[in-house]
Structure formats: C-alpha cells, structure tokens
Write a structure and sequence with these properties.
It comes from Trichonephila clavata (Joro spider). It is built from six helices and no strands. By secondary structure, the protein is mostly helical.
Amino acid sequence: MDAANQALLERAKRARSVSRSLVTKQINKLENEINNSADKTTVHEIYVQLISKYEEMSTLDKEVESLINIESLEDEILTREEYRDKFIIWKIRAERYIGTVSSITFQNSVENQPQNVTPLNNTVSSVLTNQPRLPKLTLESFSGKISVVSQFLG
C-alpha cells in the first residue's frame, strides 16, 4: 500500500474510532434513560440521535473496508457486525420502550433520515414497521333468538 492510501486509511480509522465511541456513548445513554424510566420523548430523542450516529459510523466502516488489505478484512467485518448487533438490540429496545408513541412519529423519523441508510437498517425497519394490515371484522350481536331452525322444519 502506498503512502497516500496508508494516510487515507489511518484518517478513516481515526474518524471511525471517534464515531464508534460516540455510538457506544449514545447506547449507554439510551440504556441509562430506559433503566431510569425516563419519559418517552427523551428516549425517542436519544434513539433518533443513535440512528444518526450509527449511520455515520457505517459510512466510515465502508470507507475503511475499501482501503484495507484483504488480510485485515475479516477482522474488520467481525467488529462491524458486533456494533451492528448491539445497535439492532438497542434500536428494538428503544422502539419497544416508546411503544405508545404513534407509528406516525417513527415513520416521520425514518423518512427524515439521510439517504445513506445502510441496507440492514432498511431491512430491520421494514420488518418492524411493515406488518400486514388485516381487515377489521365486525360481529353482529346475538339477540338470543334462533331463526335458522324454521328452515329445517319446513
């Protein structure tokens, strides 16, 4: 690897290191607020900030992966997946905690995110938000009178 690419790699790794630290701090903050039964608005704000920080980290992960040598790629992917798993766990916990906030609020936060959302984030969001909508069934109240019997007697 030439000196220019090495410098780009070091810069990207440092930026990613800071980004990973911010994601970890945001997760810890989210965990603390949920454990202390914070109001749902505060948890939602921290959650949206976490998504933003995670997206930035994912972008930096891709940049580092494009610059590193093949021998280091496996370790990079394994570390990336650890952060992704942790993010998904806390994303789901936050959504469950906020549960009573209308789905419109979540939909708006997803729609207002930057366009560089990672494919997994889209997959997880679509799985969590695109539940099938079944038609509402209404049952008529039973009066207690059986009118079907006359058909069989006649």
